[in-house]
Amino acid sequence: MFALAARNMKIPFHSVLGPVLTKNKMHINKICSHPIFGFVPVYVGALGIIGVVLSIFDIIRIIRCGSILPGYLWRERIKNGQFISPEVERDCKMISLVISTEYYLFLLVGLVTNNPVFYMPYLALYSLIITLEVIIFLTKVFVDGVDFKKCGLVMSLFMVFNWTSVFCTLARSTSCCDF
């Protein structure tokens, strides 16, 4: 019974990621052996701690504001000619902050337990976010032409670096037995 349960814990690596990681292990090791990625477990730990602390700080700040966010926390957004109500914006911010706290806690648990499964939610979410950023960028290039904003470019590169750091930590914590 316990052997079956232990074997089922490897399902994401055995059936989905295992073949991809083993096929590309040489390329992954080449990328992850770059000197800039030599400290990624420590960096991912710092990323997790900072993410949890900032998310909890924002949750506490929003809870203290009450049911309606003050003007500096509430951005008026127009959708179909109507404003989004402050209660809906507050609830959406709370939901996103709780989810981000969860992802950063998963990073910390993955580091402490050396279990690569805990990196999967972060990698999946940020893969989606990075893909959407690329689609939005390409759409803007074709519609408006190339318009680089320094802040947006730095944030996008930082997001890709964070994703690559977590991915290299995942690659280091997996072994051939996980596949």
Stretches where pLDDT is under 50 for at least 5 consecutive residues are 1-8, 76-81
Distance between the termini: 21 Å
**What is the total tally of β strands?**
2
Number of helices: 7
Task: Report the principal-axis shape.
Answer: globular
Task: Domain count, please report it.
Answer: 1
**What do the pLDDT scores average to?**
79
**Quaternary organisation:** single chain
Portion of residues in helices?
over 70%
Q: What pattern of helices and strands is seen along the backbone? A: HHHHEEHHH
Quick take:
The protein has about 180 residues and is mainly alpha-helical.
Fill in the keyword field for this structure:
179 residues, mainly alpha, two-stranded antiparallel sheet, disordered N terminus
Description:
The protein is mostly helical and 179 residues long. It has one domain (38-178). The chain has helices at 2-8, 11-23, 25-32, 40-65, 86-113, 120-144, 150-173; strands spanning 78-79, 82-83. It has a two-stranded antiparallel ribbon.
Which helices and strands, and how do they pair?
Blueprint: H1 2-8, H2 11-23, H3 25-32, H4 40-65, E1 78-79, E2 82-83, H5 86-113, H6 120-144, H7 150-173
Antiparallel strand pairs: 1-2
Helix pairs in contact: 3-7, 4-5, 4-7, 6-7
